């Protein structure tokens, strides 16, 4: 859990950093609003590519090899971005950082496959809580570093979690569930024996066997899928008749969740830095220190969101929990259609951030559970990539509209997206609360 959490911290700091370096670079390099928003968009574009690519890699070659590759790309590119001499080079390197951290869903899938079904949702959300830790740490780091040392030092120090994930990789083991699903039962049994030794217990009697249905699904000639090594074959499974409806609906939910979550982060940054000079909703500030403080306060909103989602996900189930989170997000954002006092704006953004982060956590758990082990990483990877469409659109909606003083239009867009997300979640055909993970479409 700690190693998977480290990957989530790395993802959080590399994402949150966009809220801080954008205004600084806009001033230093005289960037237009389009150029400023593009710095956020290219990172999400990289995540879009990375999530699909790493999902295919880890389903083809194993979770552990995927984790190592992700750590290498993320660490190296994050360090290189510190030395970017100009805007274009920074865009290119930050896009590659996006490709690296785009593989972060693999950490969650890997962890999920070690957790018992009776409390799988709670523990997966607890693990996902490391993302919240990362957002808070990044806000604190920006508060200390940006006014004194500038954005390059912030980029350098923010790469530490990625390097730690690389250094601590030696302590990871392959997922026994993945090995068994791939027919490598002897390798899976060896790891289970090591786990039993660490936990001072013994394996239950019997022989570990691989599901025959898994072999039929993945073997040449037995299915339309021609090769286990073909990334495209995994995508075909996601779009097979048995999974098509749930796949399309979960994609809509991911687009909406990403758009609403990153939209709130950007709105907080924009209101705090007075980028819409004519809006009385702005959190009127005159210095960068206040910007970082306001972003830190709203980052703390993830704590109640995390706690509420961890409780609800096992008590009332995945679908209903997400629907409640979406509804509360809608209600907190609604008053911002009209100008509000600064204190009320902060409170409303705080509440919307809390429930947006809660829905973000639960949808990640739910997506991993509705797919079989043989395509789980591909399923969450492709869903995350599709979700980045919403993330890429959020800076266009937030930065362009708010800076153009069209705040009401921006809020209406985010509200419409979250309504669509709630409807899609309620239409998904399965509730995974308390259900065992399954390895194939036939189980």
Automatic annotation (TrEMBL):
PROSITE patterns linked to this entry: MFS
UniProt membrane topology term: Multi-pass membrane protein
Primary localization class, coarse: membrane
UniProt KW keywords: Membrane, Transmembrane, Transmembrane helix, Transport
Origin superkingdom: Eukaryota
Cellular component GO terms, alphabetical: membrane
Transmembrane segments: 38-57, 66-84, 90-110, 122-145, 151-173, 248-271, 291-313, 320-338, 344-367, 379-402, 408-428
Signal peptide: none
Location of the Major facilitator superfamily (MFS) profile domain: 1-433
Compartments in which it is found: Membrane
Protein family according to the UniProt entry: Belongs to the major facilitator superfamily. Phosphate:H(+) symporter (TC 2.A.1.9) family.
Entry protein name: Major facilitator superfamily (MFS) profile domain-containing protein
Species name: Solanum stoloniferum
Lineage: Eukaryota, Viridiplantae, Streptophyta, Embryophyta, Tracheophyta
């Amino acid at each position: 859990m700690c190693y998977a959490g480290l990957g989530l911290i790395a993802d959080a700091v590399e994402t949150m950093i966009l809220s801080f370096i954008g205004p600084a670079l806009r001033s230093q390099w005289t960037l237009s609003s389009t150029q400023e928003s593009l710095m956020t968009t290219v990172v999400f574009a990289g995540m879009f590519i990375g999530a699909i690519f790493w999902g295919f890699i880890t389903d083809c070659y194993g979770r552990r090899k995927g984790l190592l590759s992700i750590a290498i790309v993320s660490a190296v590119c994050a360090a290189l971005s510190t030395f970017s001499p100009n805007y274009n080079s920074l865009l290119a390197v930050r896009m590659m950082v996006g490709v690296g951290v785009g593989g972060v869903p693999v950490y969650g899938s890997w962890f999920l496959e070690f957790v018992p079904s009776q409390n799988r949702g709670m523990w997966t959300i607890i693990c996902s809580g490391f993302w919240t830790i990362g957002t808070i740490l990044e806000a604190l780091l920006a508060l200390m570093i940006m006014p004194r040392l500038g954005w390059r030092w912030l980029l350098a120090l923010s790469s530490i979690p990625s390097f730690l994930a690389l250094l601590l990789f030696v302590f990871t083991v392959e997922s026994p569930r993945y090995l068994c699903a791939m027919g490598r039962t002897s390798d899976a049994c060896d790891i289970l024996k090591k786990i039993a030794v660490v936990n001072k217990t013994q394996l239950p009697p019997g022989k570990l066997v691989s599901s025959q249905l898994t072999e039929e699904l993945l073997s040449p000639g037995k299915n339309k899928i021609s090769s286990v090594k073909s990334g495209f074959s995994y995508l075909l499974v996601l779009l097979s008749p048995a999974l098509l409806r749930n796949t399309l609906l979960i994609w809509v939910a991911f687009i909406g969740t990403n758009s609403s979550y990153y939209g709130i982060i950007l709105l907080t940054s924009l209101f705090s830095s007075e980028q819409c000079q004519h809006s009385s909703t702005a959190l009127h500030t005159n210095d960068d220190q206040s910007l970082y403080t306001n972003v830190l306060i709203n980052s703390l909103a993830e704590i109640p969101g995390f706690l509420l989602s961890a409780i609800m996900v096992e008590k009332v189930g995945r679908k209903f929990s997400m629907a409640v989170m979406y509804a509360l997000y809608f209600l907190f954002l609604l008053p911002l259609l009209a100008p509000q006092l600064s204190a009320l704006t902060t409170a409303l953004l705080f509440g919307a951030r809390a429930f947006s982060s809660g829905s973000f956590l639960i949808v990640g758990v739910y997506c991993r559970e509705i797919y079989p082990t043989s395509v789980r990483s591909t399923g969450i990877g492709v869903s995350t990539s599709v979700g980045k469409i919403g993330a890429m659109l959020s800076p266009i909606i937030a930065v362009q509209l708010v800076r153009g003083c069209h705040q009401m239009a921006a809020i209406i867009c985010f509200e419409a997206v979250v309504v669509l997300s709630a409807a899609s979640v309620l239409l998904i055909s399965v509730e995974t609360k308390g259900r065992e993970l399954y390895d194939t479409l036939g189980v």
